[in-house]
Amino acid sequence: MTKKHFRISVVIPVYNEEDRIFYCLDALSRQTIRPLEIILVNNNCKDQTTAIAKRFKSVRIINEPRQGRAIAQATGFKNAKGDILARIDADTIVPPDWIEQIGQAFNDDSTIDAISGYGVTRTGVTINFISDIWSWAYFTHCKAFFGSEILWGSNMAIKKTAWVKIKNLCSVNTNLHEDQDISLALASVGGKAKILPDLKVSVDFGEIAYLGKYWRYNKMKHHTRQTHRIHYRSNLTTYHKIPKFKRVCYHLLATYTVGLFMIITAINSGVHILTSALKQSSVYFWYQKIKSEFNF
After folding, report:
1. Residue 2: Cβ-neighbour burial (10 angstroms; 0-12, 13-18, 19+)
2. pLDDT class for 130, splitting at 50, 70, 90?
């Protein structure tokens, strides 16, 4: 089989990411195969994000004044010139062969329209196999919850031809998860998505490490599913659904992890609250003072 050379564009929507964007772009600049372009979509950043990005000559900055990650993502995809549209977040740090792996995946299976991979956390428990378990649980739970293969926005890629088919079926609602929405739109036109466990990136799971943020994430997940159900795309004859018996199996395999993750985030939130309270207390003040005076 002749190996096709794909032109790969990388799209990164950003909003006030000055603490993380350098490491993200630095990793992209060290690829074994360079992407065609790196598009940073400035979604009204008020910090030094774009100033840092300008230090990388390979980065093209596009401004999107309409607020929302889904809108910023769509703007990036619209302006991308590649055959493959790769998508990550500002907290994503990709391995050196990430672009190479994406091209190889589409060469290995010409029937797929989109791919996604696992995330290795830099927050909390950082043991790799624990991250693999959480990633597996997320994708398995999503198959049960949505009835379709779901892509993950911090580590995904979609063919430009597939995006053109579904772009008018995607929502720009800020109360939805844009990666889940684009996955459901892809499934509705019979598109094929594939999860690749070996396609791994490093991420900061801090956004869902606390109970309040995790609760908001789940509210948006339910809203995404409800919005899809009332959208005409869910009734298209081309809509590729996972059979009910398989969804039941996925529920049995992975749904318990949702409760487990909530327990972990609740404990993490409690520890965070107690630590913050302690640091603001007089006890902590005197501890630091004594420590500095006695040099221990």
Report:
1. exposed
2. confident
pLDDT at position 12: 98
Q: Are strands 8-14 and 37-42 parallel, antiparallel or unpaired?
A: parallel
What does each C-alpha distance from 270 to 67, 183, 208 come to in angstroms?
A: 32, 34, 14
Instruction: Work out the average pLDDT over 241-258.
Output: 89
Residue corresponding to tokens 């490491």:
23
* CA atoms of 233 and 169, how far apart (whole Å): 7
- What are the structure tokens assigned to 95, written together? 């391995």
- 262 vs 190, residue with greater confidence: 190
Separation of alpha carbons 68 and 70, rounded Å: 6
Rounded to 5°, angle at Cα 103 from 197 and 81? 125
Question: What pLDDT does residue 279 have?
Answer: 65
- pLDDT of res. 123: 73
> Measuring CA to CA, which residue among 205, 233, 9, 227 is closest to residue 121?
205
Q: Please give the average per-residue pLDDT across 82-94, as a whole number.
A: 97
Which distant-in-sequence residues (6+ apart) come within 8 Å of 55 by Cβ? Answer: 22
Report the side by side order of strands in the sheet with 193-203: 59-63, 37-42, 8-14, 84-87, 156-159, 114-121, 193-203
Which residue, 61, 47, 72, 57, is CA-closest to 26?
Answer: 57
Domain boundaries, the chain: 1-90, 111-294
Residues 107-126: tens digit of each pLDDT: 999 999 999 999 998 876 66
User: Cβ neighbours of residue 111 under 8 Å, at least 6 residues apart?
Assistant: 192
Range 1-90 classified under CATH 3.90.550.10: yes
